[in-house]
Amino acid sequence: MLKKILFIMISVTSAFAFHIGELNINNKDIEAQARLDMGQFNEQVDPHTTFIGMRYLSSSKDHSDYHKDPQLFELNALLQKEVSSLPDLRLGIGVRYEYVDVDDVDFSAIPLGVEVAYRLPSENFIPMHLGGSLYYSPEVLSFGDAKHYLEYKLNLDFEIIDNGFITIGYRHIDTKYQAGNSEKLNAGFLFGFKVFF
Question: Any residues with CB less than 8 A from the CB of 1 and at least 6 apart, and which?
Fold first, then answer.
């Protein structure tokens, strides 16, 4: 009996396990991201609705307007929910803290944004998810030498094993400075892996 109860508890826990780890690359850039599902730590929070996380992006000057390879460090928070009339659609709002490390630049920003994910009706083939995000920081939420920050990303995820995805997509990040110059921090296609655990 104890073994059955333990098995049921493990099964229920894994059914609601939604921490996310992600690694994206292309021929010049690498991006690593982790998001923790707060619903696993607090019973008052619904699972898969509230996340905090961090991201690191090492961008090549070949995919950037910078003269050296810029690096981006990020802390983030996301609230998301299924749309009741479309259960395969999830919408979210988020906030991030971005810090750019390159040359003698003092660039940091707090962009606000939206994220969307849609599970495509492809159950007879491979489960697929189409996603996108848009984050923008106006001048009032940009600090140091920063004037604004803009990032958008589109991705298509293929669930090749349970909770394991191959992802392909496109990412574009623009930074603008108080001096008036705009610098593309990163733009390019990406390929990677995403794991829910």
Answer: none
